[in-house]
Amino acid sequence: MTDPRDPLVLDVFRNRFAAVAEEMGVTLMRTAYSPNIKERRDYSCAVFDAAGDMVAQAAHIPVHLGAMPLSVKAVLAEKTFAPGDMVMVNDPFRGGTHLPDITLVAPVFADGDRPVFYVANRAHHSDVGGMAAGSMPLSTSLFQEGIVIPPVTVVRGGVMDRELMDFFLANVRTPVEREGDFAAQIMANLTGAKRLSEMIERFGRERTAHQAARLLDHAEALARAAIREVPDGVHEACDLLDDDGAGGADIAVRLRLTIRGDGMEFDFTGSDPQAAGCVNATRAIAVSCVLYAVRCLVAKDVPVNAGLTRPIHIVTRPGSIVDAAFPAAVAGGNVETSQRLVDVIFLAMSQALPGKVPAASQGTMNNVAVGGVDARTGAPFAYYETLAGGMGAGAAGPGESAVHSHMTNTLNTPVEALEYAYPLVVREYGLRRGSGGEGRHPGGDGLCRELEFLSPAEVTVLSERRRHPPYGLSGGAPGATGRNVLIHDGEARELPGKCHFTAVKGDRLRVETPGGGGYGEKHYLVYSENKLSRCD
CB under 8 Å, gap of 24 or more: what pairs does 210-213 form? Predict the structure, then answer.
């Protein structure tokens, strides 16, 4: 018999667990209804052990995957599973991110009465009710953002709870699309549970569980080894959110990073209090951002699982912008504050590892949510998209242009799919030349996306880096700030970074996304690093 301690055996199991999560994602993508899931791939899938610790994930969305374990733990604390059950949850204060991200958890049983594994997926639904179409409003309370779902058993013994699903669908603007996407999430979990059951049948319950535990230990060992290579020290960093969409501005995210031996402490307690508007992040988002940054620090092909979190201590202050208290508005915290958290973490890491960390990427997801009634069909529609931008340059070379970076790993909706599904026409889609910051290595360029509305529509834009640019490093210049423009009757009007308006047929929305920061001085470049007064 092969020695279960053999590293080759561990690698086989590592790839098997990861393949389960990847196949779940393929199932979800291919069976979904909405372009947001089947085209943009705004979803994530993962495998968890009996304690709810993540064993493996697919290469999906960092902000989902780092936070999902907290949702799974919340579910396990409140629910008992029987074979065929599935529990859904979207509560941001139970490990969620924002309300459109709905998590579905399913157990995997072997020969006992307790699950030996769990599978879970999280998908962004284009509308879950609330005060604005697309459920990404300029809110001041969680209750304005959509339906809040605590852990509820929606599939029991393999049978859908029809009354519960009807209740959910009665609270959304696009019930047919929502039900189709939710059915795809169910199928993804069934796929994952089937594949894990096959692994257990082939290798045995104890051996499979043992190798899952070894994977967590292996990831921890790699993380600790990488941290030991970083000089001990204390590093502080700060960056600002432009505004909260409700009158607050220049909201500071502050970090004190302590590196000692093979451990790291991320202390965000100096960050500003939670905001009135929708940019508040839950602690789950802060945890997610730290996990992503640590994963970037470990250069080896490390398995991304709960083992990576063991050398890390995260300190947040309840009631702050990075650990908001219920019922704070959080729609933008997941998509915008998460990006600023990564900017601050990388800025602190750049002090510990000069020459190893890139300049800031665009620092926003440029969220556009559009809803209304399609004049072509008379049916309701809800369109949601995040737009790519420039990546920061580094010592090794320039930043990539027009790509999703850091906490988002989605795709742009293809023009053909967008125009087929929605009453919209893409009038321009291309690079925003020259928007990357100058430097020895320039930052990547953002992009321009211009949409024309073929039907009256309700529009929400949540974006950042419209006032404070993405920083450069080592003398590199910052990237260009982004712009939002509404064109009505041929006249262009500059929009704020966060706005809500009603568009009429023929109006056009133009979004120009930020460029990435540059890295290193050019011999002719004279640049004094941008100072943020609230961070002094």
Answer: 210/4, 211/4, 211/9, 211/10, 211/13, 212/13, 212/17, 212/49, 212/55, 212/117, 213/49
Mention every residue, 6+ apart, whose C-beta is less than 8 A from residue 82. Answer: 156, 157
Structure token pair of residue 161: 């709870």
Torsion of CA 275, 131, 409, 339, to 10 degrees: -10
Q: What is the pLDDT of residues 19-62, one digit of tens each?
A: 999 999 999 999 999 998 988 888 899 999 999 999 998 776 66
Closest of 320, 269, 316 to residue 288, by C-alpha: 316
Query: In this structure, which amino acid lies at residue 240?
Result: L
pLDDT of residue 301 exceeding 60:
yes
Distance CA 126, CA 382 (A): 6
Block residue for tokens 């696009």: 174
Over residues 338-394, the pLDDT tens digits come to 999 999 999 999 999 999 999 999 999 999 999 999 999 999 999 999 999 999 999
Contact 101, 65 (CB under 8 A): no
If one counts every other C-beta atom within 10 angstroms of the C-beta of residue 317, the result is 17
Helix, strand, coil percent values for the chain (each to nearest 5)? 30, 25, 45
Element (H, E) at 312: strand 312-315
Rg (C-alpha) for the chain, rounded Å, is 23
CA 124 to each of CA 5, 297, 470: distance values in angstroms, whole numbers, following the listed order = 39, 28, 27
> Beta strand pairing status for 263-267 and 312-315?
parallel
Tokens of 484: 């939002």
Quick check: 535 pLDDT over 90?
A: no
Please name which of 144, 39, 174, 161 lies closest in space to residue 104, comparing C-alpha atoms. 161
What phi and psi values does residue 226 have, to the nearest 5 degrees?
-65, -40
For residue 307, the SS3 value is: helix
**Whole-number pLDDT of residue 111:** 84
Beta-carbon count within 10 A of 261 CB: 11
Query: Helices in 266-324 by DSSP H: which ranges?
Result: 283-297
pTM over 0.90: yes
3-state secondary structure labels for all residues of 105-169: EEEECCCCCCCCEEEEEEEECCCCCCCCCCCCCCCCCHHHCCCCCCCEEEEECCEECHHHHHHHH
Is the pLDDT assigned to residue 527 strictly greater than 80? no
User: What secondary structure does DSSP assign to 200-232, as a single string?
Assistant: HHHH-HHHHHHHHHHHHHHHHHHHHHHHHTSPP
